[in-house]
Amino acid sequence: MSNLAVKIEDLHKMYRLGTIGGGTLRGDLQSMWARMRHKEDPNMMIGQEAYTKNEKFWALKGISFEVEKGEALGLIGGNGAGKSTTLKLLSQVTAPTKGKIYLDGRVASMLEVGTGFHPELTGRENIYLNGAILGMTKTEVTRKLDEIIDFSECEKFIDTPVKRYSSGMYVKLAFSVAAHLDSEIMIMDEVLAVGDMKFQEKCINKMVDVSQKEGRTILYVSHNMNTIRQLCKRCVVLDHGTVKFDGDRDEAIELYLGNETDKGIYNNYEDYNSELEHTGSVKIIDVEILDRRHAVIKENERLKIKVRWKANKDLSKLCFRMPIQFRDGSAVGMYISDHIENVKAGQLYESRIDLNTIGLVQGKYRIDIIISEINMFGGHIRADIVGNALNINVENVLNSVNNIEWYHNAWGSYSFPDSNIKTFVI
């Protein structure tokens, strides 16, 4: 155990469903009284199924792994895989049902926005509170206070009660405290997603720094594979409470992303409605890749796409915007079409898009399709969007053997040169 910071052996965690959890003692008593009379639970949401009394749910089913001192380990997997449960057990928020956990060092954790903060205390007072929880003296915290406040970008509000902070400010201060106070092990759930992009990048760089230069151990959970690539060299993939893979980061990410269903040559989106903000002035019906049996693009081949869409109101100008990304979500570039003018309400249209893919390196890509309204100032307003509308594989590309390499942690600027669009009324 000399060089190990974390060791987990045969860890199990079981929850009993439906027994308690009304949120208040009154609610739990109401639920219990209803069950005794074989009545419907008054605290159950409409459409929610009643759990059998004492029904068991195993969140973890015997996971085991080790983390060395100074290592940054990524925990990845789908929702319900057991990632957050594992971090809560390591943070001693809850106790395991079975199994053993060995920790060599003090633990600082961020499991959700506001963890470890008292809402009535100011930001400054909460810094001292967190330091005391970690076993630090007031003098030790004071020595690092200015550095914490400066990193958090919350100096103006540091003497304001944190209950008045936005979620982003909470995250900034909480991360700054966790990163700068003396803890040997940092545990991070996907709370950084609340912060702005600039601060997220700042946090990732700080975690890389404390891991590589200060020798601190990091356990990091995220659905953003780009940040996993930047921070971790090793990942554990969890699936329904078990360890599916433990090893190289890129193999783990490929395994995790491989669980996603690939799109076919033809995809119907008539019943699809994006959660992203859009006006709904047009509706994308379906998307099809033309002139091929598989979504595989080889050297110098063009990608021809047919999109059928319907206008829900009269529009003077539209255009297609098609962001292309690696399968891990890191950006490659975007195609922006010429304007489509004088669109009529109730009319069905077909757009044929011919894309020149020369210059794309070998790999797996996803393409979003956005139809945007063009306002009088030339601005783009989303009329409809289909995220991950197409998946394509680029293989045996000339540029790949010419040693051109694209880095997943950098935003691309690829623009599909010499591409075109033709739109018809159907």
Radius of gyration: 26 Å
Assembly status: single chain
The averaged pLDDT comes out at: 82
- How much of the sequence lies in strands comes to 35-45%
Short structural summary:
The protein has helices at residues 25-36, 83-90, 123-133, 138-152, 167-180, 197-212, 225-231, 249-258, 398-401; strands spanning 4-17, 55-68, 72-76, 98-103, 107-110, 185-188, 217-221, 234-239, 242-248, 266-268, 282-289, 296-297, 302-311, 315-326, 331-336, 340-343, 348-356, 363-374, 380-394, 420-425. The chain starts with a strand and ends with a strand. Helix 3 (123-133) packs across helix 5 (167-180), helix 4 crosses helix 5 (167-180) and helix 5 (167-180) packs parallel to helix 6.
Topology:
Blueprint (H helix, E strand, L loop, with lengths): L3 E14 L7 H12 L18 E14 L3 E5 L6 H8 L7 E6 L3 E4 L12 H11 L4 H15 L14 H14 L4 E4 L8 H16 L4 E5 L3 H7 L2 E6 L2 E7 H10 L7 E3 L13 E8 L6 E2 L4 E10 L3 E12 L4 E6 L3 E4 L4 E9 L6 E12 L5 E15 L3 H4 L18 E6 L1
Parallel strand pairs: 3-7, 3-8, 5-6, 6-7, 12-19
Antiparallel strand pairs: 1-2, 1-4, 8-9, 10-11, 11-13, 13-17, 14-15, 14-16, 14-18, 17-20, 18-19
Helix pairs in contact: 3-4, 3-5, 4-5, 5-6
Describe the structure.
By secondary structure, this protein is an alpha+beta fold. The chain has a domain at 266-425: Distorted Sandwich (Coagulation Factor XIII, Chain A, domain 1). The chain has nine helices and 20 strands. It has helices spanning 25-36, 83-90, 123-133, 138-152, 167-180, 197-212, 225-231, 249-258, 398-401, and strands spanning 4-17, 55-68, 72-76, 98-103, 107-110, 185-188, 217-221, 234-239, 242-248, 266-268, 282-289, 296-297, 302-311, 315-326, 331-336, 340-343, 348-356, 363-374, 380-394, 420-425. Mean pLDDT is 82; it is low at 399-403.
